[in-house]
Amino acid sequence: MHWMKAILVLRRREVLRAGLTVEIVIWQLSAPTADRPHGLKYRLQAHRGGRTLVRYDNETGKGDHRHYGRKEERYAFASMERLIEDFIADVERLGGGHG
């Protein structure tokens, strides 16, 4: 199996209000793939007490998608900036804004 080199673009972990933990990890791949035509591998997740409340990721075989509560749906990736904005908007809807 051939492993591609990836460069870490962003890694951030922060505990917000009421114990809501937010983690963002984004990697730039050495080349786009069928599952990641934008060339990024990512996981943006908000969880509390070991339970994931919202997660955006693009694991192999699934492509870009979003988990919100128990619901999983495709995510229309536009840009890394938009991905982060959409994720933050979901976190704010959960009441996890700074404060």
In short:
The chain is mostly beta strands and 99 residues long. The chain has one helix and six strands, in the order ββββββα. It has one helix spanning 80-93, and strands at 6-15, 21-29, 40-48, 51-57, 65-68, 71-74.
| Adjacency order of strands in the biggest sheet | 1-2-3-4-5-6
Strand and helix order: EEEEEEH
Number of strands: 6
Overall, the morphology is globular
Helix fraction bin? 10-25%
Total individual domains: 1
Give the radius of gyration: 14 Å
Tell me the major beta sheet.
6 strands, antiparallel
Percent of residues in β-strands: 35-45%
Q: Tell me the structural class.
A: mainly beta
- Mean pLDDT over the residues: 90
Total count of helical runs of at least 4 residues = 1
Q: Outline the low-pLDDT stretches.
A: none
Distance between the termini: 46 Å
List the helices and strands and how they pair.
Elements: E1 6-15, E2 21-29, E3 40-48, E4 51-57, E5 65-68, E6 71-74, H1 80-93
Antiparallel strand pairs: 1-2, 2-3, 3-4, 4-5, 5-6
Mind explaining what this structure looks like?
By secondary structure, the protein is mostly beta strands. 14% of the residues lie in helices and 43% in strands. It has 1 helix and 6 strands. It has a 6-stranded antiparallel sheet with strand order 1-2-3-4-5-6, with helices on one face. The mean pLDDT is 90.
List keywords for this structure.
single chain; 99 residues; mainly beta; six-stranded antiparallel β-sheet; 1 helix; 14% helix; globular
